[in-house]
Records
---
Amino acid sequence: MGSMLQWRLCSLAVVLVSCFLAQEAVAQRPRYMDPRQPVEVRVNDLLSRMTLDEKIGQMTQIERGVASPSVIEKYKIGSILSGGGSEPSYRATPSQWMSMTNSFQWGAMQTRLKIPIIYGTDAVHGNNNVYGATIFPHNIGLGCTRDPNLVRRIGSATALEVRATGITYTFAPCIAVCRDPRWGRCYESYSEDPEVVRSMTTIIDGLQGQCPAGWRGPYLESNRKVLACAKHFVGDGGTWQGKDMGNAIMNYDTLVKTHMRAYPDAIAKGVSTIMVSYSSWNKQKMHANKFLLTDVLKGRLGFRGIVISDWQGIDRISDPWGANYINSVRQGINAGIDIVMVPFDYVKFINIVKGHVATGAIPIGRINDAVSRILRVKFQARLFEYPYADNSLRTYLGSLQHGALAREAVRKSLVLLKNGGGAKKKLLPLNKYASKILVVGAHANDIGLQCGGWTISWQGGRGATTKGTTILGGIRQVIGRNSEVVYQPNPSAGYAKGKGFEYAIVVVGEQPYAEVNGDNLNNLNMPAPYPALIKDTCSNVACVVVMISGRPLVVEPYLGYMNAFVAAWLPGSEGRGVAEVLFGNYEFSGRLSRTWFRRVDQLPMNVGDRYYNPLFPFGYGMKMGLKRA
Ligand code: GLC
């Protein structure tokens, strides 16, 4: 018998034995590891195998600064997060981010049951923690676009840029309905109108993928998508005087119709997680509100994903914060919280939960419900099959296509509030072939200022904090080659006079802020030197004022000086989008997503209120009347 035949027979034998062994391996592996099994079968099989320590570990989310593969392995930690601005190293690259998330995942893979972690970040207007990521307009501007399809596309782009850094989960979208612009987080809200906020939940389709009709439960389409988080449940935008983490005083009907309105849409879209609000409803902390978190959210609304606490949200159940942490842990978990964003003192948290389970203060049934929800999300996200980052996605961070999408979003978010009128002639569209143009205001030439909070750092910051094009840079790109642009951040009085400027572009606005640091309970004035700068510049030359802000500010006293006034909100990294509209490459299409008040003593004042006397009403927005279509 030839050696060829012998070789072939040996090869065949090897193949047959390999197939047998492979089948044996499949037959031996636990059912929860079998992707062919239905998700609920996998959930129940895995849950039945877990120890109490493993279950509590899944309910524990810790900050990356205290995490390591060994900590994850030892405490069976199920989730890690980056707090605002928390990165593996200064201006970390996608590869460095992936190296970090993969190292944490490796730690999880060393545990007995190999349950993968999820890694969360606040990618609330792009993957904004990461240097070089595309920074999209904040939600207040997106609400002015009234373009759900655009917002869905932004979600898709954001998902790719988040996955480009090996991250699987974003704490977005914020579907707060901000009813008072004194709230420091009003720019995170799409609108004062719950119907506009509802329409913007299409971002979940972009972030997670569009779930099939009739789908029930958390959804994730592929490893090019990320788990989303509708937040903050519920009433975060309705607190008294807009106080962050304050008290929402209203009856249940108003809470449901105004502040809960968008949650059924988010749930129907398969949102994987919902974050609890720090705020209180009629003086009861949301983090301890079993009626709303369990009876309403999980019961009536049928939410089958993960309810996650906010950062130290459990600690803040008691006043002063942390005063009775042991009792707060019991209250929060029994109220229906499934994952606790601890985020630092995880050993203490884990031991307290174990103690409460031992005494029956936290029923094991509550633990099993929480862990079942966590596992359901992780199985649906196919993290057991694909636990590690896909290195091929790293090139999506800051891609040219995403930059173009962001410019489109900037253009559509701009709202034209004045263009001529009274003694002032119409000025927009600006003449891009003007011989001499003056640009003033620090906000014209500052990426950090035009991005606002939640950009690179938690609070945001001034200067070249990340890549992008300033508004001034955009102006220079759009105008004619023979036009001269003179830029003065804060010129002396009378500077604009007699220098032959055809017009001035005055870019004013707020300093960056996030959360409680943005609360402005007393006044919403434009910060100095802008009121004086507007008066002086616009008294000496025709001017358009562009406002970079997270909310409407007091502007009525200065409107008469302006030929034109544009609300640009917090446009993000693509400042060219502002110039493209100012110079008439595109028409204005934005409409106010929130009422522009006259004076702070009118607040709160929202569309539909009996007393409604705004400077510019909700839905207002002019066009320049461009000749071409
Ligand atoms: C913050 C915010 C929340 C954010 C979380 C994690 O305090 O309230 O919106 O997702 O902590 O950064």
---
Amino acid sequence: MIRIYNTLSKKKEDFIPLEEGKVRMYVCGPTVYNFIHIGNARPMIVFDTVRRYMEHKGYEVNFVSNFTDVDDKIIKKANEEGVSSEEISQRYIAECKKDMEGMNIKPATTHPLATQEIDGMIDMISTLVEKGFAYAVNGTVYFRTRRFEEYGKLSHKNLDDLQAGNRSLLVSGEDEKEDPLDFVLWKPKKEGEPFWVSPWGDGRPGWHIECSVMSKKYLGDQIDIHGGGEDLVFPHHENEIAQSEACCGKVFSRYWMHNAFLNIDNKKMSKSLGNFFTVREISEKYDLQILRFFMLNAHYRSPLNFSADLMEASKNALERIQTAVDNLKYVAEHAAAVEMTNEEAAKAEEAKKYELNFDAAMDDDFNTADAIAAVFDLVKFANTNVAEGSSKAFAEVLCGMIQNLCDILGIITEKKEELLDTDIENLIAERQAARKAKNFARADEIRGLLLEKGIILEDTREGVKWKRA
Ligand code: AMP
Ligand code: ZN
């Protein structure tokens, strides 16, 4: 039985899906105005792993994750570059998908785009207005927060405390609200911004309504799991609950899961502090499998600190698994005996306990840290019990077990052959040095080596440039 820590109840609960054998899951995706950073990568990796584990347990998972492609930050970037918002969002969706592939994150069943779902948003807002949960003033539509009696149930906030905190935060122009707690569902267009026609005038949706609508459209009125980073609990998810439940009159999501934040060198990641890495930057130094492995070494509800040392440790740890798999494959290929001996069969049986430990860890609110510990126990077991004289079947069984567990975590056990940007640059530097020392044979050898890997060098006046073929 899978147990999930539910932010709603603040407890671990047994996972019972709405429909037997099926999981409906929605995870809030990124706002696409730039390359994603390694903080954004955490929920992607965490919830991809949840999905993979659910699939391993036999569930059919309908996994929906959106791209927020209309937003102030996108508009700002588009204006800076003098291009359309669509060009910006399309560009960074494509880049995000490349990063996801590098991190071995499976594409969602559906990746809806907010801008393609405006009709649904207008419908939901209209329903909320009809039901008295929303009202329009001068082209803006607000949600009447106090009308939704359970408001605050996810973030465990009390309306009156919120009210007290909110009074000083009133932004100018918002005094047209009936109540400072009310939030925006639709906002009127401003000069130079994308807009859509609506019953309340030209404008665009608020952020919260997007997810309520996309979740309803692709998964139905009720879902099993809703996920995202912990910063989304309030107000984003609280508002999603208010909108969806006021509209449909049903419990929106049964389980709410939130990952803790990723920090850098024990500090909050922020652009102004300069301690900020995009996934793309990390990919220049490391295979992104290492980033994934690093993230899964912590429980998703624990804050995680990113540092060069920890990445190096993850690199070494992952290599230990990959080397074990390589060795087992080697033994299997070169084994004299095909069938297992009785003793080996007993050992293979014994190794199953690591699979059980793995599942027990994952059943306990997806404790990937303990699950990885079980993989290492299995690796150690294989390293001690498989040797050159072992049978093909025995080596294959243990190899398959390791690969299977790694696959559930989305960890690829094959060593990556492709050269990283830093490797390429190091080789280019070595080639330059060889040329300077008039060692042209070595210089040519390096050029040939790079060419074999699909890297083309071009000697220009500004120095050596390279590209991937
Ligand atoms: P955003 O593009 O800011 O809406 O963020 C997309 C997702 O990344 C959300 O689920 C955020 O909660 C999550 N997120 C943003 N920063 C971090 C971080 N430093 N650590 C973990 N998750 C984060
Ligand atoms: Zn959302």
---
Amino acid sequence: MKIKNIILSIISIFSFCLSSQAQKIEKVHPGIWKVTYGQPEKHLPTDFKEPASESLSGLPDRETAPFDLRSIQFKEVPKGIVAELKIGKSEKIYGFGLQVNSLEQRGMRREIRSNSWTVGNVGFGHAPMPFYISSEGYGVLVNTARYVTFYMGSQNKLAKSAGLKKELPPEQPGTTLAELYNSSYTPSEEVEIVVEGTKGMEIYVFDGPSMMEVIQRYNLFSGGGYIPPLWGLGLKYRAKSTFNDKEVLKFAQYFREKHIPCDMFGLEPGWHSAAYSCSYAWNPKNFPEPDRVIDSMHGMNYKLNLWEHAYVHPTSPIFEQILPYSGDYAVWKGAVPDFITPQAKEIFGSYHKTNFLEKGISSFKLDECDAADYKQAEAEWSFPDIASFPSGIDGVQYRQLLGLLYQKMMVNLYHDANLRTLLEVRASHLFAAPYSAILYSDMYEHVDYIRMILNAGFSGISWSPEVRQTGSEDDLIRRLQSSLMSSHMVVDCWFLNNPPWFHYDRNKNNKNEVLPNYLELEQTVKKLIELRMKLIPYLYTAFARYHFEGVPPFRSLVLDYPEDREVWKLATQYMMGDQLMCAPFIDGVSEREVYFPKGVWYDFNTKKKYEGGQKYTIRMTLDEIPVFVKDGTILPLAEPVEYITPETVLNVTCQVYGTPEKPARLYEDDGKTFDFEKGDYNWIELSWNKNKGKVVRNGKNKKQLYKIVGWTSCTPRQESIESLIKDRLDRSLQQYELMAASLMDQPDRLPGFDGGFGPVND
Ligand code: GAL
């Protein structure tokens, strides 16, 4: 045994000497190291990053790296550069950007390629990222805009040196199917990272010590999370692509007449004179007098958002100018501007500034910038990998970075005007946390949408589970709830005549049929949107933590409860801010299993109390929202308003759950400018002592966004004996079912098992 260890160490020292020739290790910030190998690449994601926020220094600095960085092995292969790292037997891996199909990434191959649809579960998506986080409390980021493949313990290297890794023959030769087909999975302890087409690699390693601190460090290194404008937390409604001015105004009036809160109205492709590619000029048929539409919408206190993408139509006023600063391939016959060149940025930016920003357009939906659809071999709409651009960037790198560069340029336009915006964007990449832009998709699986909320939290991005058509009324309400419980509540009717609560079925909706009970449904929807408006102070505060401390406002429970093995794979529940846990009801079900981590929790609707550390079956009516509140919470809830204006002051009531041991903090600023970057904000301390609430405001912001008007103590509902007995019975039944299910998977553990029966997987 000893000799084996000595030989292994000699081999590893030898291979380190071989590999470390060109390997450089630098500490670049507290808790952040850079490992460089070979020839540096051009157009790295860090080139487009603003300087790291000072807040980075607020995180613990352990001086030494989280693992021996010299143990990273590099080698050159014809495909590019390979880095090899080790992972421990029980290490779990999360991240890789906006992954769609899985939460835990150990044992997976992850291919980092921007694409508008997933292709199997190989890792493609709107915002895949070369960045993962380990449960051991460190993060690994590959600083490249090239295609990267990560083998996350998914491959096993053959041990070539005889005797070293030789496996003993099995004591009992295999007889079962699983044994014969060798399907028992042994996770490999190796990570291989391949960057295609380079001669060098840069790896950043982020220390924790906790996973939460890794992601905080990453977000702060990116420049800190964005704070949305206050209106950005309200409802967004996107009207049908073909709508003209009258139809838009009709629906804008509808919300106001029905007093259904709505802050932003989005126009889809039909506002352009040419949409695919884009002219960025108003369609004279649909919108003959755009200024009047803008005025009327402002008169109704709406913010207006315009859909577009970056491919410039030959009839666009900027086409001729931007052509020299565009790539050599067209997309939908339009030019693809190179947003790395100052000229393309200036032409595109100043046109948008004069024609839209200065006319009162508050935001944009930046579509199609994922720039690929590998599924469509016959009609690939985007530029190819072999495209070249004036800055020298190639088709691969530009495909990966286009969403990031596009959102950055547009956010900066608003930043220069000292006005916050909230964009929608369909692609992103590393270091996007400071940009107020929300990812969305045409994919539409509700369960994936929820998983994407969790995955977004590992990579400094925001994701919107938007609502369109649905399969049933229940599905509609549950999807609306999930949208409410996310960073961006949006109803996207780009192919629907009417709001989906008129009719959830796409065809019937477009025939203007309405559900018999649509007015009732409308009331349920209205109550839900009002709840979103109530949550604004709480959500705004969560975003302030994102900005100042890098804490993701929406995140997997594994970041808050890393020791709790029940949450390691839990992809259907997540934290919304620090105090609320969401457990969405998917596909219109009316009950589901909810796991409560340690501590005491309360049902937000009924105030019923749950002891943590166990699962419960929870039933909820459509009027109830699957949100659970941590014991000790002071939850600031606003009186709902129909929309946010610069004059809005929110009347806040604090709900007190249990006995808070420390004060809650509430963030306040002017809600619209970037003056908070100069220190113009307040933190309000809310404390509860001897059944009395106390408010202390600190900071230099003069305008008060909130008026604290009341306090309520939410004592748990008194349980009736019957409901307690029923609950207990339900739980025993559940435990029995669970035990039975696990024994079915492992029949040999059944008492009295003689090997003669049991399910066979074939
Ligand atoms: C899609 C986009 C949709 C909608 C549509 C309009 O690509 O994802 O949300 O905007 O374009 O054509």
